[in-house]
């Protein structure tokens, strides 16, 4: 064998070894991160359960939301340190301390609410009933006073109350994770809440280069790593009028906005 072939073979072998080590590390880091997540949630469970019964509603809300923000901020730092994820969430910092508004992101994956709550203080999230009943997430979410969207009337009443209290309200206009290429048809609830509370709607654009925890993705299925998440501020919409035509026009305008923005700002490899 010539010297050139020997050198090529050695380099190829080193490259294969490095690739194998990198793949092994990614696998270890990913499942280690899941174990940490489960342990943190389970550790908070008894404290959240007790605090919800001994604190006033207002005090529980403050404590619960502060813990959510700090815990998830720390967890995303861990994911970045492990090389599992890359985050660009700095645009959200501009929302701290602003008057109450509806935060309206698109919804590519299950992490979306946590990305936003980790950076925007006192965020009130609208959640599905199955989250409230989840042993890992439910007790903390209930302590934080998050709104369960079990009935339309109850959701609208509670959402308006949160906005009048001065808290930012995190509401996904799609109502569920995105299934189409850009954005699902939007639900009308966001227009009703904005109109009744006379609160502006701040759109947020969430971009990712992975389908991880999107619709149908099982949590233990490891994706290609690292995953990139970016959240940017979109257009801020003034609240609509309360009449049916104004509400319908508002939803149609939101739909066009998301479709255009997501098409223009897609993350590329």
List the keywords.
globular, 269 residues, seven-stranded mixed β-sheet, 8 helices, alpha/beta, 13% strand
Detail the topology: elements first, then pairings.
Blueprint lengths: L2 H52 L2 H26 L2 E4 L13 E4 L6 H6 L6 E4 L1 H4 L5 H6 L3 E2 L3 H14 L3 E2 L18 H9 L3 E8 L18 E11 L6 H21 L5
Parallel strand pairs: 1-7, 2-5, 2-6, 3-4, 3-5
Antiparallel strand pairs: 6-7
Helix pairs in contact: 1-2, 6-7, 7-8
Strand order of the largest sheet: 1-7-6-2-5-3-4
Number of helices: 8
Classified by CATH, the class is Alpha Beta
Number of strands: 7
CATH topology title = Glycerol-3-phosphate (1)-acyltransferase
* Sheet with most strands: 7 strands, mixed
Architecture per CATH nomenclature, i.e. the level-2 architecture:
3-Layer(aba) Sandwich
Give a short summary of the structure.
Helices cover 51% and strands 13% of the residues. It has 269 residues and is an alpha/beta fold. The protein has one domain: Glycerol-3-phosphate (1)-acyltransferase, CATH 3.40.1130.
